[in-house]
Amino acid sequence: MTELSISTAVGLFDAVAAGPREGRPVLLLHGFPQTSRAWHQQITTLAAHGYRVVAPDQRGYSPRARPEQPEDYRIGVLVDDVVAITEDLGWASFDLVGHDWGGAVAWWTAHTHPGRIRTLTVVSTPHPGALATTLRTDPDQRERSRYMIDWRETPATEELMLADNAEVLRAIYAGKIPQDSVEAYVRHLSQPGALTAALNWYRAGRPDGAIGAVDVPTLYVWSTEDSAFGPAAAQETGQWIKGPYRFETLQGVSHWVPEEAPETLSRLLLEHLRAHGEHGTTANTRLPNPGR
Questions:
Q1: Where are the domains of the chain?
Q2: d(Cα 203, Cα 194) in Å, to the nearest integer?
């Protein structure tokens, strides 16, 4: 893996990259409370199979792309970040993968820019339309999502999560993530302003508009022990996909799929990518001035 600094209007995004520069491009978006480190296994596997993989630390997680106001973390600007990052990389089209909040950004990006997305893979996070439906109709999902409201309190949430050597923050990982990664995440989010920026994703408010169905080839991976997203929203997601769709359920796995079930997720990713498009680069993969 190599480290990159990706230049955009909001600032510089830190990222890790691997794989041949001319390989088929894949962008991986992490969620809360993690960084690009969450994708280590998937990066390694995809790169070994000839893909060019980039995983950025998203807005607020990258110190040099960390605006202060909650409104600077609206879903629309997070989607704009994906476009800006891939333009700096020189990618005209790419495969998009997201987990947790990264999954939400991935759904919205595929809805807003379908012509640029070769395939979509979302882990854990249901389609936003499916989630909205089940929040209205399913008491179980409403209870699961209550934390999203609680975490909007500021600065109380930051103080609670970081108190006593970040005991509450550490508990979020539920013992499902390798301890060295937990320590890395806690160090990262303990930096001044980092946890507030990450929580601003929850405080940014509702999207500016409604999201519709996605018509790009889509893989959705949900796990039965996910504490945040229940079966109703997972099943409802299929109603919001117009294109080719594959739904995979991982039995006995928690929310932290990329790190708890890395080999299974990597296999599913490879199968999905191979099922939709040639392995190598194609004529429309890169912009006229290729980036890294």
A1: 2-275
A2: 14
Active-site positions read 100, 202, 255
Which residues lie below 8 Å from residue 102, measured CB to CB, with a gap of 6+? Answer: 28, 29, 30, 31, 58, 125
Per-residue pLDDT of the chain (292 residues; tens, 9 = 90+): 999 999 999 999 999 999 999 999 999 999 999 999 999 999 999 999 999 999 999 999 999 999 999 999 999 999 999 999 999 999 999 999 999 999 999 999 999 999 999 999 999 999 999 999 999 999 999 999 999 999 999 899 999 999 999 999 999 999 999 999 999 999 999 999 999 999 999 999 888 889 999 999 999 999 999 999 999 999 999 999 999 999 999 999 999 999 999 999 999 999 999 999 864 444 345 555 445 5
Q: Report DSSP letters for 91-129, one per residue.
A: BSSEEEEEETHHHHHHHHHHHH-GGGEEEEEEESPPPHH
Paired tokens of 215: 């018509």
According to CATH, the superfamily of the domain at 2-275 is: Alpha/Beta hydrolase fold, catalytic domain (3.40.50.1820)
Closest of 245, 246, 250 to residue 265, by C-alpha: 250
Q: How far apart, in Å, are the Cα atoms of 290 and each of 22, 92, 161, 178, 284?
A: 9, 9, 42, 36, 12
Q: Which residues pair with 54 in a beta bridge?
A: 17, 27
